[in-house]
Amino acid sequence: MSVTSASASTVAAGTVLDLPAAARSDTAAGALAAAPPPLAAEAITVRYGRRTAVDAVSLTLSEGTVYALLGRNGAGKSSLLRCLLGQQRAAAGRALLFGRDAWRHRAALMARVGVVPEQSDAPPRATARQLARFCRPLYHHWDGGAFEGRLRRFGVPADLPFGRLSKGQQGHVALALALAARPRLLILDDPTLGLDAVARRAFFEELIGELADRGTTVLLATHDLAAVERIADRAGILADGRLLLDEEVEGLKLRFRRIWLAAAAAAPATALDAFAPLAARETVTGDWGVETVVTAYDDERFRAFQGSAAGAGAQVTSLTLEEIFIALTGAGADQLESAGAGGPR
To answer: Is 206 exposed, middle or buried (0-12, 13-18, 19+ CB in 10 A)?
Structure first.
Protein backbone atom coordinates (compact mmCIF):
# COMPACT_ATOMS: atom_id res chain seq x y z
CA MET A 1 0.00 0.00 0.00
CA SER A 2 1.34 3.48 -0.87
CA VAL A 3 1.94 6.14 1.74
CA THR A 4 -0.85 8.24 0.22
CA SER A 5 -3.40 5.47 0.32
CA ALA A 6 -2.33 4.49 3.83
CA SER A 7 -2.83 8.07 5.01
CA ALA A 8 -6.24 8.20 3.36
CA SER A 9 -7.23 4.98 5.10
CA THR A 10 -6.03 6.34 8.43
CA VAL A 11 -8.07 9.51 8.06
CA ALA A 12 -11.13 7.53 6.98
CA ALA A 13 -10.85 5.36 10.08
CA GLY A 14 -10.78 8.45 12.28
CA THR A 15 -7.18 7.90 13.49
CA VAL A 16 -5.34 11.09 14.43
CA LEU A 17 -2.01 9.67 15.63
CA ASP A 18 -0.09 11.51 12.92
CA LEU A 19 -1.26 14.89 14.25
CA PRO A 20 0.64 16.96 16.83
CA ALA A 21 -0.46 16.44 20.44
CA ALA A 22 -2.41 19.70 20.62
CA ALA A 23 -4.19 18.95 17.38
CA ARG A 24 -5.03 15.41 18.54
CA SER A 25 -6.53 16.85 21.73
CA ASP A 26 -8.61 19.38 19.80
CA THR A 27 -9.78 16.71 17.35
CA ALA A 28 -10.76 14.31 20.12
CA ALA A 29 -12.63 17.05 21.97
CA GLY A 30 -14.46 18.00 18.78
CA ALA A 31 -15.42 14.40 18.10
CA LEU A 32 -16.79 14.06 21.66
CA ALA A 33 -18.77 17.27 21.32
CA ALA A 34 -20.17 16.13 17.98
CA ALA A 35 -21.21 12.69 19.24
CA PRO A 36 -24.97 12.35 19.74
CA PRO A 37 -26.15 11.96 23.35
CA PRO A 38 -26.82 8.42 24.59
CA LEU A 39 -30.51 9.20 25.04
CA ALA A 40 -32.88 11.94 23.97
CA ALA A 41 -36.66 12.33 24.10
CA GLU A 42 -38.10 14.78 21.59
CA ALA A 43 -41.61 15.93 22.54
CA ILE A 44 -42.80 12.37 23.23
CA THR A 45 -46.55 12.04 23.62
CA VAL A 46 -48.35 8.81 24.54
CA ARG A 47 -52.12 8.40 24.45
CA TYR A 48 -54.42 5.56 25.46
CA GLY A 49 -57.72 6.36 23.81
CA ARG A 50 -58.66 9.86 24.97
CA ARG A 51 -56.26 9.82 27.91
CA THR A 52 -52.84 11.41 27.52
CA ALA A 53 -50.31 9.47 29.59
CA VAL A 54 -47.19 11.38 28.44
CA ASP A 55 -47.55 14.96 27.25
CA ALA A 56 -44.80 16.29 24.93
CA VAL A 57 -41.89 15.27 27.18
CA SER A 58 -38.40 16.28 26.05
CA LEU A 59 -35.14 15.51 27.85
CA THR A 60 -31.53 14.73 26.97
CA LEU A 61 -28.93 12.66 28.83
CA SER A 62 -25.33 13.60 28.14
CA GLU A 63 -22.53 11.01 28.37
CA GLY A 64 -21.90 9.84 31.93
CA THR A 65 -25.01 11.46 33.42
CA VAL A 66 -27.00 9.75 36.19
CA TYR A 67 -30.57 10.93 35.66
CA ALA A 68 -33.35 10.28 38.19
CA LEU A 69 -36.82 10.17 36.66
CA LEU A 70 -39.31 10.72 39.46
CA GLY A 71 -43.09 10.60 39.54
CA ARG A 72 -46.01 9.25 41.51
CA ASN A 73 -47.82 6.11 40.37
CA GLY A 74 -49.64 6.89 37.12
CA ALA A 75 -47.45 9.87 36.30
CA GLY A 76 -46.38 8.34 32.97
CA LYS A 77 -42.91 6.98 33.82
CA SER A 78 -43.42 3.45 32.49
CA SER A 79 -45.02 4.64 29.25
CA LEU A 80 -42.13 7.05 28.68
CA LEU A 81 -39.54 4.35 29.40
CA ARG A 82 -41.16 1.94 26.94
CA CYS A 83 -40.91 4.61 24.23
CA LEU A 84 -37.29 5.34 25.12
CA LEU A 85 -36.48 1.64 24.79
CA GLY A 86 -38.26 1.29 21.47
CA GLN A 87 -40.85 -1.06 22.96
CA GLN A 88 -43.76 1.28 22.27
CA ARG A 89 -44.38 3.76 19.48
CA ALA A 90 -45.22 7.27 20.64
CA ALA A 91 -48.33 9.00 19.35
CA ALA A 92 -46.10 12.01 18.65
CA GLY A 93 -42.42 12.84 19.01
CA ARG A 94 -39.60 10.32 19.02
CA ALA A 95 -36.95 8.69 21.20
CA LEU A 96 -33.30 8.63 20.13
CA LEU A 97 -30.65 6.24 21.40
CA PHE A 98 -27.14 7.31 20.39
CA GLY A 99 -28.71 9.57 17.77
CA ARG A 100 -30.85 6.86 16.13
CA ASP A 101 -34.61 6.35 16.31
CA ALA A 102 -35.28 3.80 19.08
CA TRP A 103 -38.47 2.50 17.47
CA ARG A 104 -36.97 1.91 14.03
CA HIS A 105 -33.56 0.60 15.07
CA ARG A 106 -34.23 -1.11 18.37
CA ALA A 107 -32.66 -4.45 17.46
CA ALA A 108 -29.31 -2.88 16.61
CA LEU A 109 -29.31 -0.33 19.42
CA MET A 110 -30.09 -2.61 22.36
CA ALA A 111 -26.64 -4.22 22.18
CA ARG A 112 -25.36 -1.03 23.85
CA VAL A 113 -28.17 -0.72 26.40
CA GLY A 114 -28.59 -2.54 29.71
CA VAL A 115 -32.09 -2.76 31.19
CA VAL A 116 -33.31 -3.68 34.66
CA PRO A 117 -37.13 -3.85 34.55
CA GLU A 118 -39.53 -3.41 37.44
CA GLN A 119 -40.76 -6.96 36.92
CA SER A 120 -38.39 -9.47 35.35
CA ASP A 121 -39.80 -11.72 32.61
CA ALA A 122 -37.09 -14.35 33.07
CA PRO A 123 -38.36 -17.95 32.74
CA PRO A 124 -38.93 -19.19 36.30
CA ARG A 125 -37.18 -22.51 35.62
CA ALA A 126 -34.03 -20.97 34.15
CA THR A 127 -31.03 -20.51 36.43
CA ALA A 128 -28.94 -17.35 36.57
CA ARG A 129 -26.13 -19.14 34.73
CA GLN A 130 -28.51 -20.30 32.00
CA LEU A 131 -29.84 -16.76 31.62
CA ALA A 132 -26.28 -15.52 31.18
CA ARG A 133 -25.59 -18.11 28.47
CA PHE A 134 -28.74 -16.97 26.65
CA CYS A 135 -27.82 -13.27 26.87
CA ARG A 136 -24.13 -13.58 26.02
CA PRO A 137 -24.48 -13.79 22.19
CA LEU A 138 -26.71 -10.69 22.14
CA TYR A 139 -23.98 -8.31 23.32
CA HIS A 140 -20.64 -7.37 21.82
CA HIS A 141 -18.75 -6.92 25.09
CA TRP A 142 -20.15 -9.56 27.41
CA ASP A 143 -18.18 -9.95 30.65
CA GLY A 144 -18.95 -13.37 32.05
CA GLY A 145 -16.37 -13.07 34.83
CA ALA A 146 -17.98 -9.88 36.14
CA PHE A 147 -21.39 -11.57 36.06
CA GLU A 148 -20.21 -14.53 38.14
CA GLY A 149 -18.39 -12.18 40.52
CA ARG A 150 -21.53 -10.14 41.14
CA LEU A 151 -23.55 -13.26 41.88
CA ARG A 152 -20.95 -14.26 44.48
CA ARG A 153 -20.96 -10.79 46.08
CA PHE A 154 -24.75 -10.79 46.17
CA GLY A 155 -24.86 -14.34 47.54
CA VAL A 156 -27.09 -15.54 44.69
CA PRO A 157 -26.93 -19.29 43.82
CA ALA A 158 -25.99 -19.48 40.13
CA ASP A 159 -27.75 -22.81 39.57
CA LEU A 160 -31.01 -22.30 41.43
CA PRO A 161 -34.11 -21.71 39.25
CA PHE A 162 -35.00 -18.03 38.96
CA GLY A 163 -38.53 -18.64 40.25
CA ARG A 164 -37.13 -20.00 43.52
CA LEU A 165 -34.97 -16.97 44.23
CA SER A 166 -36.09 -14.28 46.62
CA LYS A 167 -37.29 -10.92 45.29
CA GLY A 168 -33.97 -9.37 46.22
CA GLN A 169 -31.95 -12.14 44.57
CA GLN A 170 -33.99 -11.80 41.38
CA GLY A 171 -33.25 -8.07 41.35
CA HIS A 172 -29.54 -8.76 41.78
CA VAL A 173 -29.57 -11.24 38.89
CA ALA A 174 -31.27 -8.66 36.67
CA LEU A 175 -28.63 -6.05 37.57
CA ALA A 176 -25.79 -8.53 37.07
CA LEU A 177 -27.12 -9.43 33.61
CA ALA A 178 -27.50 -5.77 32.64
CA LEU A 179 -23.99 -4.82 33.78
CA ALA A 180 -22.34 -7.90 32.27
CA ALA A 181 -23.17 -6.44 28.85
CA ARG A 182 -20.88 -3.47 29.69
CA PRO A 183 -23.58 -1.07 28.43
CA ARG A 184 -23.00 2.53 27.45
CA LEU A 185 -26.52 3.29 28.67
CA LEU A 186 -28.27 1.66 31.63
CA ILE A 187 -32.03 2.05 32.14
CA LEU A 188 -33.56 0.95 35.43
CA ASP A 189 -37.31 0.94 36.05
CA ASP A 190 -37.93 1.03 39.82
CA PRO A 191 -35.38 -1.78 40.29
CA THR A 192 -35.52 -1.88 44.11
CA LEU A 193 -39.30 -1.95 44.43
CA GLY A 194 -40.22 -4.58 47.03
CA LEU A 195 -36.63 -5.16 48.20
CA ASP A 196 -35.72 -4.99 51.87
CA ALA A 197 -33.28 -2.37 53.20
CA VAL A 198 -30.25 -4.68 53.00
CA ALA A 199 -30.99 -5.73 49.42
CA ARG A 200 -31.59 -2.11 48.37
CA ARG A 201 -28.30 -1.01 49.88
CA ALA A 202 -26.38 -3.80 48.13
CA PHE A 203 -28.07 -2.96 44.83
CA PHE A 204 -27.12 0.72 44.94
CA GLU A 205 -23.60 0.03 46.21
CA GLU A 206 -23.01 -2.21 43.19
CA LEU A 207 -24.45 0.45 40.90
CA ILE A 208 -22.24 3.15 42.44
CA GLY A 209 -19.19 0.95 41.95
CA GLU A 210 -20.07 0.46 38.29
CA LEU A 211 -20.48 4.19 37.78
CA ALA A 212 -17.11 4.88 39.38
CA ASP A 213 -15.39 2.28 37.18
CA ARG A 214 -16.92 3.12 33.80
CA GLY A 215 -18.97 6.31 33.97
CA THR A 216 -21.99 4.59 32.43
CA THR A 217 -24.91 6.84 31.50
CA VAL A 218 -27.90 5.94 33.69
CA LEU A 219 -31.63 6.67 33.57
CA LEU A 220 -33.18 5.56 36.85
CA ALA A 221 -36.93 5.67 37.47
CA THR A 222 -37.48 5.04 41.16
CA HIS A 223 -39.49 5.70 44.30
CA ASP A 224 -36.36 5.31 46.45
CA LEU A 225 -35.54 9.01 46.55
CA ALA A 226 -33.20 8.82 49.54
CA ALA A 227 -30.90 6.39 47.72
CA VAL A 228 -31.00 8.11 44.35
CA GLU A 229 -30.20 11.50 45.90
CA ARG A 230 -26.68 10.22 46.60
CA ILE A 231 -25.90 9.35 43.00
CA ALA A 232 -28.07 11.43 40.65
CA ASP A 233 -26.59 14.38 38.74
CA ARG A 234 -29.93 15.49 37.27
CA ALA A 235 -33.55 14.90 38.12
CA GLY A 236 -36.77 15.11 36.17
CA ILE A 237 -40.16 15.10 37.87
CA LEU A 238 -43.22 13.87 35.99
CA ALA A 239 -46.77 14.73 37.06
CA ASP A 240 -49.86 13.90 35.02
CA GLY A 241 -47.66 13.07 32.05
CA ARG A 242 -45.85 16.40 32.00
CA LEU A 243 -42.25 17.12 32.96
CA LEU A 244 -42.47 19.66 35.77
CA LEU A 245 -38.73 20.20 35.93
CA ASP A 246 -35.47 18.88 34.50
CA GLU A 247 -32.36 20.21 36.21
CA GLU A 248 -29.19 19.52 38.18
CA VAL A 249 -29.93 18.00 41.60
CA GLU A 250 -27.56 20.35 43.44
CA GLY A 251 -29.10 23.42 41.80
CA LEU A 252 -32.56 22.13 42.65
CA LYS A 253 -31.62 21.75 46.31
CA LEU A 254 -30.13 25.23 46.39
CA ARG A 255 -33.29 26.96 45.20
CA PHE A 256 -35.78 25.04 47.38
CA ARG A 257 -35.91 25.94 51.07
CA ARG A 258 -38.29 25.62 54.00
CA ILE A 259 -38.71 28.86 55.99
CA TRP A 260 -40.11 28.68 59.52
CA LEU A 261 -41.33 31.41 61.83
CA ALA A 262 -42.38 30.90 65.46
CA ALA A 263 -45.92 31.76 66.56
CA ALA A 264 -44.54 34.42 68.91
CA ALA A 265 -43.43 36.55 65.95
CA ALA A 266 -45.63 39.42 64.80
CA ALA A 267 -48.51 38.38 62.55
CA PRO A 268 -47.06 34.93 61.71
CA ALA A 269 -49.87 34.05 59.28
CA THR A 270 -48.90 36.92 56.98
CA ALA A 271 -45.23 37.40 57.81
CA LEU A 272 -44.06 35.30 54.88
CA ASP A 273 -45.97 37.36 52.32
CA ALA A 274 -42.66 39.04 51.60
CA PHE A 275 -41.57 35.78 50.02
CA ALA A 276 -44.38 35.62 47.46
CA PRO A 277 -41.96 36.61 44.64
CA LEU A 278 -39.84 33.59 45.59
CA ALA A 279 -42.69 31.28 44.57
CA ALA A 280 -43.99 29.85 47.83
CA ARG A 281 -45.35 26.35 47.14
CA GLU A 282 -47.03 25.46 50.40
CA THR A 283 -47.71 27.48 53.52
CA VAL A 284 -48.71 25.67 56.71
CA THR A 285 -49.83 27.35 59.91
CA GLY A 286 -50.38 26.02 63.41
CA ASP A 287 -50.01 26.79 67.09
CA TRP A 288 -46.26 26.35 66.65
CA GLY A 289 -46.03 29.06 63.96
CA VAL A 290 -45.94 29.21 60.18
CA GLU A 291 -43.76 27.64 57.53
CA THR A 292 -43.53 27.79 53.78
CA VAL A 293 -41.56 26.08 51.03
CA VAL A 294 -40.07 28.49 48.51
CA THR A 295 -38.82 27.44 45.07
CA ALA A 296 -36.51 30.38 44.29
CA TYR A 297 -34.64 30.91 47.54
CA ASP A 298 -32.17 33.80 47.76
CA ASP A 299 -29.77 34.28 50.70
CA GLU A 300 -29.69 38.05 50.48
CA ARG A 301 -33.47 38.45 50.46
CA PHE A 302 -33.82 36.01 53.35
CA ARG A 303 -31.33 37.96 55.47
CA ALA A 304 -33.25 41.17 54.75
CA PHE A 305 -36.51 39.44 55.74
CA GLN A 306 -34.89 38.01 58.88
CA GLY A 307 -33.78 41.52 59.88
CA SER A 308 -37.28 42.96 59.55
CA ALA A 309 -39.84 43.17 62.34
CA ALA A 310 -42.09 40.61 60.64
CA GLY A 311 -39.28 38.13 59.98
CA ALA A 312 -37.38 38.37 63.27
CA GLY A 313 -36.34 34.90 64.35
CA ALA A 314 -37.13 33.28 60.99
CA GLN A 315 -35.14 30.14 60.27
CA VAL A 316 -34.36 28.43 56.99
CA THR A 317 -33.58 24.77 56.37
CA SER A 318 -32.63 22.73 53.33
CA LEU A 319 -34.94 20.16 51.76
CA THR A 320 -34.16 16.62 50.73
CA LEU A 321 -34.98 15.50 47.22
CA GLU A 322 -37.95 13.59 48.62
CA GLU A 323 -39.32 16.72 50.31
CA ILE A 324 -38.90 18.71 47.10
CA PHE A 325 -40.73 15.97 45.23
CA ILE A 326 -43.64 16.05 47.69
CA ALA A 327 -43.91 19.84 47.44
CA LEU A 328 -43.95 19.77 43.64
CA THR A 329 -46.27 16.86 43.02
CA GLY A 330 -49.00 18.12 45.32
CA ALA A 331 -48.96 15.14 47.64
CA GLY A 332 -50.93 17.28 50.07
CA ALA A 333 -50.47 19.93 52.74
CA ASP A 334 -51.11 17.28 55.39
CA GLN A 335 -47.77 15.66 54.61
CA LEU A 336 -45.98 18.99 54.73
CA GLU A 337 -47.73 19.90 57.96
CA SER A 338 -46.73 16.65 59.66
CA ALA A 339 -43.18 17.08 58.41
CA GLY A 340 -42.93 20.67 59.60
CA ALA A 341 -44.98 20.66 62.77
CA GLY A 342 -43.00 21.56 65.85
CA GLY A 343 -40.48 23.84 64.15
CA PRO A 344 -37.56 23.64 61.73
CA ARG A 345 -35.56 20.46 61.09
So the answer is: middle
